[in-house]
Specification:
This protein folds into two domains: 127 residues, 3-Layer(aba) Sandwich (Rossmann fold), CATH 3.40.50.2000; 169 residues, 3-Layer(aba) Sandwich (Rossmann fold). It contains twelve helices and eleven strands. The protein has a six-stranded parallel sheet, sandwiched between helices. A five-stranded parallel sheet has the order 3-2-1-4-5, sandwiched between helices. Helix 11 links the parallel strand 9 and strand 10. The radius of gyration is 20 Å and the shape is globular.
């Protein structure tokens, strides 16, 4: 049996949120699944060591729109899939899978609009598989790689190792770099720590500003590393503190306590699925009220972030 799962959202965090359902479908049918995804999801790096995942088929711009339907249909047809699970409400994908000759197609209700991402995915999968499914995501890494990284980065148990996630998809979603610098200093007064700054290349300036403001070798930049290379470092860490970004979701899925700072994104949708995410929202807001256009960057309580960080170390 060959099974295709369509999860075409852009984000790395989005892909991680869907992981429990990819695993559930694979386990139900007793075979690894193939995923149709966007390259920006980094699904190939996230799932390299995951036996539930057989292959990643990446979408490209040539397959967008009406003109790209024919190209994508022909590509899918070559795999001879028996079943398909479509984690979106697009009529386009349903038509493509029908034309590709897939016998059984399961999909969200057509034209469904607003949703809470993890709840909709859970309800859909539970309905089709007729079994309860946990929303907790889990990423798999080769144990030898975890041990090697621990040695290479001298991540011993004598000190605390903290991931700082300073990136985000927009400036309104990034806590001030000055706050991170202050946090490093305050945590270091209470604990012997090493900090690992996880960020994309676009945030190199902020990362360098933080590095230049902290004395000694207390901070290490991970900007130059790939997601695959960063994952085992996170796995060896004691805590994640940072913005609602891909590194928060990776940390959570690797079993690391993850203090997520939500300023301008749907806090409940992107934290409620995981027991490992400890959300902090702007003063005067709730998990449910913190969403797009909350613009709460200046209303995050530094004391609350510090206190929660120390409590979870």
């Amino acid at each position: 049996m060959k099974i295709l799962i369509v999860q075409q959202r852009f984000g790395i965090g989005d892909m991680i949120i869907f992981t429990p359902y990819l695993h559930a479908i694979s386990q139900y049918h007793g075979v690894p699944v193939t995923i149709l995804a966007k390259k920006s999801s980094k699904a190939d790096e996230l799932f390299e060591d995951d036996n539930h995942i057989d292959e990643i088929i990446f979408l490209d711009k040539k397959q967008d729109g009406i003109k790209g339907m024919h190209s994508l249909c022909n590509k899918i047809k070559k795999y001879n899939f028996n079943k398909c699970y479509i984690f979106n409400s697009s009529l386009r994908y349903k038509i493509i899978m029908k034309l590709a000759g897939i016998e059984e197609i399961n999909q969200y209700p057509i034209f469904k609009s607003k949703d809470i991402i993890f709840q909709t995915a859970r309800d859909f999968t539970e309905k089709v598989l007729k079994r309860k499914i946990s929303t907790q995501s889990k990423l798999v890494i080769n144990k030898n790689l975890i041990s090697k990284v621990k040695i290479d980065y001298k991540m011993n148990n004598d000190i605390k190792h903290i991931i700082l996630g300073v990136s985000a998809s927009g400036e309104t979603k990034k806590w001030h770099k000055e706050s991170y610098i202050k946090l490093i200093r305050k945590i270091s007064e209470k604990n012997a720590c090493k900090f690992y700054i996880a960020a994309g290349q676009d945030d190199s300036f902020n990362v360098n500003s933080i590095l230049n403001s902290v004395s000694g070798d207390k901070c290490i930049s991970l900007v130059h590393l790939s997601i695959k290379e960063i994952m085992p470092i996170i796995k060896n860490a004691d805590l994640y503190v940072g913005n609602d970004t891909s590194f928060m979701h990776i940390s959570s899925a690797l079993g690391v306590k993850s203090l997520g700072i939500f300023m301008d994104t749907p806090a409940y949708s992107y934290s409620g699925y995981s027991k490992n995410i400890i959300p902090i929202v702007p003063e005067g807001e709730t998990l449910e009220s913190t969403t797009h256009d909350t613009l709460g960057k200046d209303k995050i309580s530094f004391d609350k972030v510090l206190k929660s960080s120390l409590l979870n170390l």
